[in-house]
Amino acid sequence: MTGKFITFEGPDGAGKTTVMNNVVAKLVPLLDDQLLVTREPGGNNISEQIRTVILDKKNTEMDARTEALLYAASRRQHLVKTIIPALQAGKLVLCDRFVDSSVAYQGAGRQIGMDAVYQMNQFATENTLPDKTIYFDIPVSVGLDRIAKYRDKDAVDRLDVETKTFHERVHDGYLEIAKKNPDRFIMIDATKPLEEVISETFSVIKREGQNFFKE
Ligand SMILES: Nc1ncnc2c1ncn2[C@@H]1O[C@H](COP(=O)(O)OP(=O)(O)OP(=O)(O)O)[C@@H](O)[C@H]1O
Ligand SMILES: Cc1cn([C@H]2C[C@H](O)[C@@H](COP(=O)(O)O)O2)c(=O)[nH]c1=O
């Protein structure tokens, strides 16, 4: 595969999506159709349908392993139908969340085991991992405060409304994944002012995707 696969990860409210939107606005004039911006769960028709089921606040009875399998099913479809074709076409793929989210949220957050969730996802992805992962770190209380303050009530999903203890486990899970993958993870302090986080993220992408920016 000739493209480059970069993921954005972090606890809820870290600002990934806001930062990604701002960075993409700067990248589009430079890269045009060499860029694919996508997200998980979702990113294509079937995967977005699965997203709706997973995140629906009415689905309170969903079992933790069912949840993990649905994220993996959505990911499989997204990977083979959207991400891999773009990488084969030589594109820079920026994806809001990927396998690390499942390991942190389902493995650590839901306590079904980080290794077990990772293995199950290896089956789903045939061992595909991002080239680089930009991790937006934030204390749980700050992320949750941002969501409470700024997010439209209707846009709050089934995972956002989990307990602070759940989100603490997710955060600890992320730090463990980052520690195990020092070559892949790039840490960004997401408590900094938004403009600084955007500029730092843009610089990381220009450095990591330097082949895309040659004259
Ligand atoms: N550096 C920042 N400083 C202050 N506020 C910020 C910063 N970054 C993002 N925000 C605000 O925090 C809120 C949450 O941001 P956003 O939705 O991008 O987070 P997220 O990481 O994508 O969360 P989720 O994973 O739950 O969707 C938004 O209202 C956004 O404007
Ligand atoms: C991919 C993935 C996501 N999640 C969680 C993380 C968030 O709470 C939601 C997705 O919402 P976002 O606003 O688009 O970030 O789902 C998860 O638990 N496991 C996963 O694999």
Give an overview of the whole structure.
With 215 residues, the chain is an alpha/beta fold. The protein has one domain (4-213): 3-Layer(aba) Sandwich (Rossmann fold). Helix content is 55%, strand content 13%. It has helices spanning 16-31, 45-55, 64-88, 99-109, 114-125, 140-150, 164-180, 194-208, and strands spanning 4-9, 35-39, 92-96, 132-137, 185-189. It has a five-stranded parallel sheet, sandwiched between helices. Helix 2 packs antiparallel against helix 3, helix 4 (99-109) packs antiparallel against helix 5 (114-125) and helix 4 packs across helix 7 (164-180). The protein is globular. The mean pLDDT is 96. The chain binds adenosine-5'-triphosphate and ligand LXEULUCI. The ligand Cc1cn([C@H]2C[C@H](O)[C@@H](COP(=O)(O)O)O2)c(=O)[nH]c1=O binds at residues 12, 39-41, 71, 97, 101-102, 105-106, 157, 159-160.
Alpha carbon gap, first and last residue:
22 Å
The level of helicity is: 40-55%
Radius of gyration: 16 Å
Number of helices: 8
Average of pLDDT? 96
Q: How many distinct domains? A: 1
How would you name the CATH homologous superfamily? P-loop containing nucleotide triphosphate hydrolases
- Please summarize the sheet with the most strands: 5 strands, parallel
CATH architectural grouping: 3-Layer(aba) Sandwich
What is the count of β-strands?
5
Topology of this protein?
Layout: E1 4-9, H1 16-31, E2 35-39, H2 45-55, H3 64-88, E3 92-96, H4 99-109, H5 114-125, E4 132-137, H6 140-150, H7 164-180, E5 185-189, H8 194-208
Parallel strand pairs: 1-3, 1-4, 2-3, 4-5
Helix pairs in contact: 1-8, 2-3, 3-4, 3-5, 4-5, 4-7
Bound molecules: adenosine-5'-triphosphate and ligand LXEULUCI.
The site of adenosine-5'-triphosphate has 16 residues, from α1, α6 and α8.
